[in-house]
Write a structure and sequence with these properties.
Blueprint lengths: L1 E4 L1 H17 L1 H20 L5 E2 L6 E4 L5 E7 L3 E9 L9
Parallel strand pairs: 1-5
Antiparallel strand pairs: 2-3, 3-4, 4-5
Length: 94
């Protein structure tokens, strides 16, 4: 299955990586690798994450890092909607 990122998710990832890289380049690389690992996992097992309160949206955790991937699943692709720090409001709460 294909994994596609929305423009919003890509912008959020860029902000996360920029923030981390300015403070700790090794941590930024580790988080980037973990996001890639989770995306690969979602391509193989799209129902890996748990269901969110929002209909049709699932959430996958980066586990070692405090970030959440919000995504939807269709017949042929996983669409990453948001990537956010776990302490932030969820997208539909803003």
């Amino acid at each position: 299955m294909k994994v596609r990122y929305t423009e919003t998710a890509l912008a959020e990832l860029e902000d996360i990586f920029r923030y981390l890289f300015e403070r700790n380049p090794a941590a930024a690389r580790a988080v980037a690798a973990r996001v890639k690992d989770i995306a690969t996992l979602l391509a193989e097992y799209p129902l890996f994450g748990h269901e969110a309160n929002e209909p049709g949206v699932r959430i996958a955790s980066l586990v070692r890092y405090p970030f959440l991937i919000f995504y939807t699943v269709s017949a042929d692709e996983v669409v990453v909607l948001h990537v956010r720090h776990a302490a932030r409001l969820w997208p539909w709460e803003e």
